[in-house]
Each structure stands twice: as structure tokens, then as C-alpha cells.
Write a structure and sequence with these properties.
CATH topology of the largest domain: Cathepsin D, subunit A, domain 1
CATH superfamily of the largest domain: Acid Proteases
CATH class of the largest domain: Mainly Beta
Shape: globular
Number of domains: 2
Mean pLDDT: 83
Largest sheet: 17 strands, mixed
Distance between the termini: 43 Å
Structural class: mainly beta
């Protein structure tokens, strides 16, 4: 990634994920503190409903007291984003622009400040937001914006796919005493990275480092270097020609399933996988990313302050 020139920041966006260490979202605001386990009754937790749209998590929030906006929750974004139309309606102060590098090119996006999100009473104020690039808005017209890394750093975020609700808690007073599987991660360029493994019959586990990407509607997206090094297309049985859409263009893939995927102490049976034939949805040295088709099998708690993700299997 290249440093930005005056008034410009460079953002690395591979597939649907924005990956950067040059843009950091500062946050403030307040949410009622929670000193209880998420498995016990809690009166000081802010909860809000969400819906799955095209396999992605969308929740409603007010932005600067305007009408409610529909926002996607995406751990792959390093900066929160709004549609250009909403940014114009709010008359936000422009502070520069960012360069977004996609799978097949680059795009420019304006950067703004002075935004406050109201999520059912929980307030989140990032230092900066960016406008969604034109190509993104053409593909995803139903969304008004994205809540990314700064949002997940501000709160302990619990996503319950079965109940279709999100719970927000204060990191400083959060304590977990449930029976879920605690999966440690490391933050790399604002994105959580976990150790996981593909399990094939009569072979040693194929281990790799994977991004957690709640903005991906698929199961696994695996980069071409990792696919070729471990002969995954040949080893996993039937695949079909496909493709993944991202900013700047598309990437050729083959879609199939891996027999088993191990994440922490959990083993997911036959998750869908996109095997990239060219390029990768992630940075060099990473195997790929884990999307919502895998994650929605669990109640997931993101605790960035302690660099951990907690998985509670759904019945």
C-alpha cells in the first residue's frame, strides 16, 4: 500500500473488503454498560434487529438525526462509509479523499467528518467516513452505508442469526461466562485474522490464516496461491466455473465445497468455497476469508478489545 498525498489516503480493497492501516476510525459516544454474561438476563444491553439481504447483515440507524439509513455490518472495512446521496443530504464537511484498490482497478472516494450514528440509543461517532464508490452503489442500491472496523472496536458486538438481532455492550465492563468456543484473532490492517484449517480425507489438516469477513455472503473465499499450493480444486471434488464481484472488477473462481473446515474447536461440514483462479480476496500471506455462510451457523460475539471471537453453535 502506498502512502497518500496531501488530502489523500490510500485504501486497499480486495474483493468486498477494505484493508488499510492508513485510515483509523476514532470513536466516542456511549452505550449502557453491561456487567453480565450474554447468556444471562441483561438490562443494560442495547439491542437492535437486523435482516439478511443477499446473505449480508443490514441494520437500521439514524445518521445525524436524519431519516433511518440501512447499514451493512462488515468486519472487512477499515473505514465506515455512506452513500454519496446521504453524504450530500447531510451536508457533511469534505476532508479529502481515499483511493480504493479493488480486484481489477482503483476508484476514488470522498472522505468526510462530522457523523454520528444512533443505533437504538447507542451512539457511535467515527472520526471520518467515506463515500461509497460509484461502482459499489450500482451493484448494491439497497444500502445506505457500511459500519466497519471502528464500530466493532467501539462495542462488543454480538450477532444472533437465529433471532436476527444485534447486541451492543461496553468492552470495559464485558465479561463472558458462557460455554461458547473462544477463538483468538490478531488484528491486521483493521481486520481480524484467525488460524483455521481445511480438512480433507486421509490428509493432514491444511492450515492457514483467514480473515473474518462479515460482508462476504459466501462461505470461504480462498486465494489462488493457497488454492494452487494445496491443489484444492483437484482435491475437493466437483467444482463449477464462477466469479466474485469486487470494486474495480471481477475475479474468476471455481465454486465447490470443502469436506470440513475447522475454526477454533468447531468443525463446519461442507462449507461452500470459492477457489480463486487468479488473484486473491486478501493480502499476501493469507489463505482467504471466512464469510457469513460459515459464521451464520453460530451466535458470534466480536470482542476486539481482547482480540477474540466467541462462537456459540445454533441448534
Amino acid at each position: 500500500m502506498l502512502p497518500g498525498v496531501a488530502g489523500q489516503t490510500t485504501v486497499h480493497w480486495l474483493g468486498l473488503a477494505v484493508l488499510t492501516w492508513l485510515v483509523q476510525s476514532g470513536v466516542n459516544g456511549a452505550v449502557p454498560a453491561d456487567a453480565t454474561s450474554p447468556n444471562q438476563p441483561a438490562t443494560n444491553v442495547v439491542t437492535l434487529p437486523f435482516e439478511f439481504v443477499s446473505g449480508r447483515i443490514l441494520a437500521s440507524a439514524r445518521v445525524n438525526d436524519a431519516q433511518p439509513a440501512l447499514l451493512m455490518l462488515d468486519t472487512g472495512y477499515s473505514i465506515d462509509m455512506l452513500s454519496s446521496e446521504l453524504a450530500g443530504l447531510l451536508e457533511l464537511k469534505r476532508t479529502g479523499h481515499i483511493t480504493i484498490v479493488g480486484v481489477a482497478g482503483e476508484e476514488q472516494a470522498d472522505r468526510f467528518e462530522g457523523v454520528a450514528f444512533d443505533l437504538s440509543g447507542a451512539t457511535y461517532r467515527p472520526r471520518r467516513v467515506a463515500a461509497l464508490p460509484a461502482s459499489y452503489q450500482r451493484h448494491w442500491r439497497k444500502r445506505d452505508g457500511v459500519l466497519g472496523a471502528g464500530f466493532f472496536k467501539r462495542f462488543v458486538v454480538e450477532i444472533d442469526p437465529k433471532e436476527r438481532k444485534i447486541s451492543l455492550r461496553e468492552p470495559e465492563t464485558f465479561h463472558y461466562s458462557g460455554n461458547g468456543d473462544v477463538v483468538p484473532f490478531k488484528i491486521r490492517q483493521s481486520t481480524p485474522i484467525v488460524e483455521a484449517a481445511i480438512l480433507l480425507p486421509d490428509q493432514e489438516p491444511i492450515s492457514g490464516r483467514f480473515e473474518i469477513d462479515t460482508g462476504c455472503d459466501g462461505g470461504l473465499c480462498i486465494g489462488s496461491d493457497f488454492v494452487n499450493a494445496h491443489h484444492l480444486v483437484e482435491s475437493t471434488g466437483r467444482t463449477e466455473e464462477s466469479g466474485r464481484r469486487g470494486l474495480g472488477g471481477d475475479a474468476r473462481t471455481r465454486i465447490g465445497r470443502v469436506p470440513k473446515f475447522r475454526l477454533g474447536g468447531q468443525v463446519v461440514e461442507k462449507p461452500l468455497a470459492n477457489f480463486f483462479l487468479e488473484g486473491s480476496p486478501v493480502d499476501e500471506g493469507l489463505a482467504g476469508h471466512i464469510g457469513m455462510q460459515v459464521l451464520r451457523r453460530f451466535k458470534v460475539i466480536f470482542d476486539y478489545s481482547r482480540e477474540r471471537m466467541i462462537l456459540e453453535p445454533l441448534e
